Each structure stands twice: as C-alpha cells, then as structure tokens.
Amino acid sequence: MERPAPQESSRDVPVASRARNVFITGATGVVGRRVVPLLRAHGHVVTAVARSTAADRALESAGARAVRADLLDRAALERVLRDQHVVINLATHMPSSTVRMLLPGAWRENDRLRRDGSRTLAEAARACGVERFVQESFAPAYPDCGARWIDEDVAIAPVRYNRTIADAEQSARRFTEQGGTGVVLRFAAFYGPDAFQSLDLAKLVRKGFAPLPGSPEAYISSVSHDDAASAVVAALRAPAGAYNVSDDEPLRHRAFVDAIAAAMGAASPRLPAPWMTRLMGSVGEMLARSQRISNRKLKDATKWSPRYASVREGWPIVARSL
Predict the structure, then answer these.
(1) 45 φ, ψ to 5°?
(2) What is the C-alpha to C-alpha distance for residues 69 and 170, in angstroms, rounded to an integer?
(3) pLDDT at position 25, please?
(4) Distance (Å, rounded) from C-alpha 94 to C-alpha 125?
(5) What b-and-e string marks burial along 269-280, b requiring 16 or more CB atoms within 10 Å of the CB?
(6) Are 82 and 224 a contacting pair, CB within 8 Å?
(7) Which residue pairs, CB below 8 angstroms and at least 24 apart, start in 105-110?
(8) What class, spelled out in words, does domain 19-321 have in CATH?
(9) How far is CA 201 from CA 22, 206, 207, 209, 212, in A?
(10) Residues 61-105: pLDDT tens digits?
(11) What is the pTM for the complete model shown?
(12) Contact yes or no for 211/243 (Cβ under 8 A)
C-alpha cells in the first residue's frame, strides 16, 4: 500500500501563504484602508481598530471585524489579541493640515502613539502569544547622505518633531528579543490622491511654487499609498528587522517637483530660498536632507516590488484623481 505523503506543518508554510488572524491599527488611514482588502484577498482574517460608527461600517464593508481598543490600555488590548497571529501597527495622529505640521505642539498625540502606544501594543501582543509585530516607521528620519544610497545599516537621526520614531522602532526590536518576529517598515515620503499633503502640494505647484526646502540637487525618496500597502502585506513573510519602503528611483528635488508639475500640466515651479528652511523648523530641517533611500533589502527578502518606479510614473495617476 502506498504510504500517504507527510502533512505539511504550519511552521513550514510561509506566513503570507496561509490564512492568519491579523489585528491592524490605523486601518482607516490612507495606507491602512488599502491594506485591509489586500489582507482579505490573501485569505487572512482581519480585526481592525475603529473609533466611530462610520469607521465600523467602512471596515466591515471591506471584510474586517471592527473593534474598539485603546492603544494605551494593555488589559483591553490583551482581550482582543488572544487569538491573533499578527499585529500590524499603522496608528498615527497626523496634524490636520500642512500648515499645522509646522506648529510645535501639533505632533503631541502622534508622539504618544509612537512612544507609549507602540510599546503597550507590542507588550500586549507578546503576552498573548502573537507571532509577528509589524511597526510603521519613517524613512526620512535618516541623516543627509548626499548622493550615497541609504540602506538599513545607516542609523536613523530623527529631528525634534519626529524623535519618537526611535521609540516605535524599539518596541518592535523588543518584541523580537522576547521571542517574536518584529518588523519595522520605514516608509518614504507618501503620496496619493486621498492625502491632504498631496492635494496641498498640487495646489501650490499649479501656482508656481513647491515648498520643498534644501538644495535642488538633494534627493527625495517617495512611495505611493498603494505601494506602501502592498509592502505591509509583504512584511508578513519578512524576517525580523527594519526595511525601507521606497520606490525604485529617488529623484533630486528639482526633478521631483518638475515631475509633479508635468503631471499637473503646470510650469516648472519655484523652490524655496535657502533661508526659508529655518522658518519651517524641524520639519524643514528634515525635508532639506538629501536621502537616496534603497529598497533592496525588502525586495530581496519578500519579492515585493513597487508598481510605480518613481513619481514620474505615479503622480500622473494622482493628478487624474485630483
């Protein structure tokens, strides 16, 4: 009699190839609301944090189970994490406008989420036996490296307004030290048709001005919301560690704003005078840095690849939507 083939154990199956229970925060944000349907398309069972009845309906229509959970309340988190395999933390609290981003106290709530919320969530997840913890981070926290490619071995150097990025990343590292798989995703500068930053930038470019401080020869690295979302799903099969999430071709500031202008059918915009960087505070300090960020590590580890190689390909899509 022919012997039956040995059964494949769950440990032998890549995490993204089998159905998992996935808990996600920030699920109604510009990236999160793209992640949820992608997770469902891969067969995962999704539980997502919601803060309103409207958010409940939106998540449930996308196939997720909506729950209420305070990221600063460990006991409450443990009640909803008991049967989860993966936690994805995309929770942020962005200032409500581009102008407000420049105000000193505008990032206070975001700091609490990154410093205290990420720690509490990671600790609750590990206590409940969650296997994998994916934490959002921000690649523009890298230092100015001129024209040199930046990989994950370069130490981040946050400025005053986003210094709690380091705290959020530490939460994922502790998760790994305690026996889980902690993954940090360092997202490049986002763009997409449903972000007010992109809308504000488009309006200014149409008027002939692009508020991007620093040298015209400095590099800026970007990633579309859609490509960021697919990278989050790819992170379910990545080994522990930090990964840059960026498009393939960072552009110099001059080429970057000209690509946006071309997509909008506008003339080449003016860039700020050097002295204007100081007026923008620590946000301006960060934006002025030259950051040519490499996505090679994530590509090699997960086979992820961005749909849009650069803003030259991605911004025309945004422009049509706007």
Answers:
(1) -95, 120
(2) 22
(3) 96
(4) 24
(5) bebbeeeebeeb
(6) no
(7) 107/161, 107/162, 110/164
(8) alpha beta
(9) 34, 9, 10, 9, 10
(10) 999 999 999 999 999 999 999 999 999 999 986 666 676 666 667
(11) 0.91
(12) no
